[in-house]
Design a protein that fits this description.
InterPro entries: Luciferase-like_dom, Luciferase-like_sf, SsuD_RutA_monooxygenase. It comes from Rhizobium leguminosarum bv. trifolii. Keywords: Flavoprotein, FMN, Monooxygenase, Oxidoreductase. The protein is an alpha/beta fold. It has a single domain, classed as TIM Barrel (Alpha-Beta Barrel). It is about 40% helix and about 20% strand. The strands form 2 sheets. The chain has an 8-stranded parallel barrel, surrounded by 8 helices. It is globular and about 60 Å long. The two termini are about 15 Å apart.
């Protein structure tokens, strides 16, 4: 662990903020004001970056929100999620360059291999389209003219006049466990993001993606997306985790998971497997609690413990090759403050 790791928080743009999981709270629904406050809390707490997620059916528009936050923040980076199925790449390149300029070079991009709203596209073609989009975006944002004759787009254009502040394409963060997703990551991503898993599975995934990238003459960096519940003592942390589920019934939890656009993905199925393999209290290995997944699709486990335990868990991931963490907790402003005070000062961290 000779280099600093990037530590990011999460702004709940997709109606994913609760005091009690499964119980919508009008104060915590996605609004500009609430999501803005999460970002400002993360910046004041010392986090390096913040994920601004995107979901067509939920919450507020990510690109518009990122543009606004670029003017309201000074230090924290903005990790803007973009849904490839909803965008024309040449126009998206101009949007990315513009927001990066507004943010004075603090923009990075989370690529989501999405469908068009109302469209159903098989995994293979959908990820092939994402590979094409990443190639187009990288060419244009590197300031190069584009002559692209692909399956999904045929474009011959000059780069937009406005370029990212660095003159280069911002980093692409990308996640997915399926074979198609792994190939896309190796082909076009900069940072491969994982959801929570057992340590041996994290190790295997890193080795696999590193090998795939090397065969293409590329190098990947690795990130880990996970929730966190940290308190002064382990007993307090476990009580706080249990409290999150104290008003949840199984039918409500199942309905929340089912409505997610990615509810049938390989990654989500793996999160379900972890939950099924966990012990009676929901822990699948030391300090990794799967209870979050009872009321959430996608990233569905949390590191739970006292500051020493949470720090040790993060350091163990770092020892395996993780260089970036995207953390979250419920409610987001409260847990961001706890992590910022109890753990963050003890980590050697900084933007990638």
């Amino acid at each position: 662990m000779t280099t600093a790791c990037e530590v990011s928080w999460f702004s709940a743009l997709c109606d994913d903020d609760y005091e009690f999981l499964g119980c919508p709270d009008p104060r915590l629904l996605s609004s500009f004001e609430h999501c803005r406050d999460i970002v400002l809390q993360a910046e004041s707490g010392g986090f390096d970056n913040i994920l601004l997620p995107s979901g067509y059916a939920l919450g507020i528009d990510t690109t518009a929100f990122a543009s606004a936050m670029a003017t309201l923040t000074r230090r924290i980076k903005l990790l803007m999620a973009v849904r490839i199925g909803e965008n024309w790449p040449a126009q998206l390149a101009r949007q990315i360059a513009t927001i990066d300029r507004i943010a004075q070079g603090r923009l990075s991009v989370n690529i989501i291999s999405s469908e068009m709203p109302g469209e159903t596209l098989a995994s293979g073609p959908r990820y092939a389209r994402t590979i094409e989009a990443m190639s187009i975006l990288r060419t244009l944002l590197d300031g190069k003219p584009l002559d692209h004759d692909g399956t999904f787009w045929k474009l011959k254009v000059d780069p937009p006049r406005i370029a990212p502040l660095s003159g280069r394409c911002p980093q692409f963060y990308f996640g997915g466990l399926s074979e198609d997703a792994r190939q896309a990551a190796a082909e076009g991503a900069d940072v491969y993001l994982m959801w929570p898993d057992r340590m041996e599975a994290v190790r295997e995934t890193i080795a696999d993606l590193r090998s795939r990238a090397q065969k293409r003459g590329r190098a990947l960096r690795f990130g880990y997306r996970v929730h966190v519940v940290v308190r002064e003592t382990e007993a307090e942390a476990r009580l706080a985790a249990d409290r999150l589920l104290s008003k949840l019934d199984d039918a409500t939890g199942a309905a929340i998971r089912a409505k997610s656009l990615d509810s049938q993905s390989v990654g989500v199925r793996r999160q379900t497997e972890l939950r099924d393999q966990a012990g009676s209290e929901g822990y699948v290995e030391d300090n990794l609690w799967t209870g979050i997944g009872r009321a959430r699709s996608g990233c569905a486990a949390a590191i739970v413990g006292d500051p020493d335990q949470v720090l040790a868990k993060l350091q163990a991931y770092r020892a395996e090759g993780i260089e970036a963490f995207i953390l979250s907790g419920y409610p987001h402003t409260t847990e961001a403050d706890l992590f910022a005070r109890l753990v963050l000062p003890r980590l050697d961290h900084g933007p990638l």
